[in-house]
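Incident review: delayed structure delivery

Summary: a single-chain prediction request sat in the queue longer than the usual turnaround. Root cause was a stuck worker, restarted by the on-call engineer. No data loss occurred. The affected request and its eventual output are reproduced below so the record is complete for anyone auditing the incident later.

Affected input:
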Amino acid sequence: MTLVKFYDGENEIHNDLGLQAYGSFKAGLEGLNPKELLESSIGLCISIVMKNILERDNLLTDDIQFNIDVRAHKDENGANRFSKFTVRVDFPSNLDSEYKKKLMVLVEKGCTISNTLKNISEFEIVDNDSRPKI
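Output delivered after worker restart:
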């Protein structure tokens, strides 16, 4: 569960452990704006899947590093949405090109966030007061 609390003009992002991050109203301010949060969700999901696959294949070592650059692109026709995400991965240098190709396919299949965004998801906004009381 994620809870966004707005008060005193600020957004706080909480999970079950409490405050984790601050939300920003636009780029360049302290905290992450909605676009950056969405991009980071994709990048973090891909990172987790990659780490798990490298670990499974006994290729994860203490010196392994990789970067994932995610860019959300606004719809070119003016719709108020992101129509494309570009993900660039700097793979660990010890991986050969054939393994990288295999890894890209497995990561693409294994990332829940990107798979959700690729497919239309049902989205619902409800009034919290309208749910049945327990």
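Verification: The longest helix spans residues 34-56.
Action items: add queue-age alerting; document worker restart procedure.
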